Amino acid sequence: MSSSKQRKARQRAEHEQWERDQLQLAQRRRRNVLLMAAAAVLTLTLAVVAAVISTSRDAPPQTVGESASEPAKLIPEEAAREAQAAEVNKAIEAGDAIAEDYTVPAGTPVRSGLKPPPDDRPVACAGRAPANARATRPRYPGGPAKVLREGIDYVARVETSCGPITIDLLEKHAPVAVNSFVFLAREGFYDGLLFFRDFGGVAAAQAGSGDNTVGWDIGYRLPDELAFAKRRGYPVGTVTTTSEGPYTAGSDFYIAYGEAFDAGFETQRTQTVLGRVQSGMGVIDTLTSLDRVGMGGEDYAERLFIESVTIEER
Q: What is the pTM for the complete model shown?
């Protein structure tokens, strides 16, 4: 069988596996939503009972003229939880990013203690690993700082081991996702990270994880901004978030390199389109032509680094 036929057969098998995985994921999400709802009701009930007991035990005897309906004071932990929940609700109503901890100022880096694992694969295109390839990346539990300015067109210049990629960022269609990308790029967060995964089932190269794994948590979650995707789909060269449902996207992103990406999400547009490649798809073609290694064949035989990301304003 020719290499072309082998690749098509592999991608078809990967896509079938991806569809099975998506069905299982949807079932898990429904189950988790029900469990979370039940847990939230139980937690709220216990908090109310604890507050009532605490108030009745600690309150001094009422004297004549005191109101029996004075509100109970919350203990600090309860007050913090309520304040966090209130901020989360405000963010959801505004369609904004949800921060993990609203007591941390937006845009404040917090040391994660995690770094990419050792990796001795050669660098693609006879390149070299950047000096910061194994540096610890921070998290941003207070959410990203607001950096976008009205009326400005943003473009990302991504220098890689195999050459530059230019991405037109779609700030009008996905302002929250683009703001996050621009903020992280200006923080130098992406510099030295890998295109670490080939999502062959839907023909997408994945990058943007702080430790080059699928388990990275940036500290905040982005909303779905899907109107553009529902109108235009995901043609080759589309840059999207890596969402698994509402408020699950973070720092990671996909670059679609095949029509399977659009077909894979045809019935359910779950990925926010944050940009499109203007030039440099040849870099991604070079990447996806590499052999695959590792469990599931999702690792590339050679490493393609993001050496730097520069944001230009027009």
A: 0.79
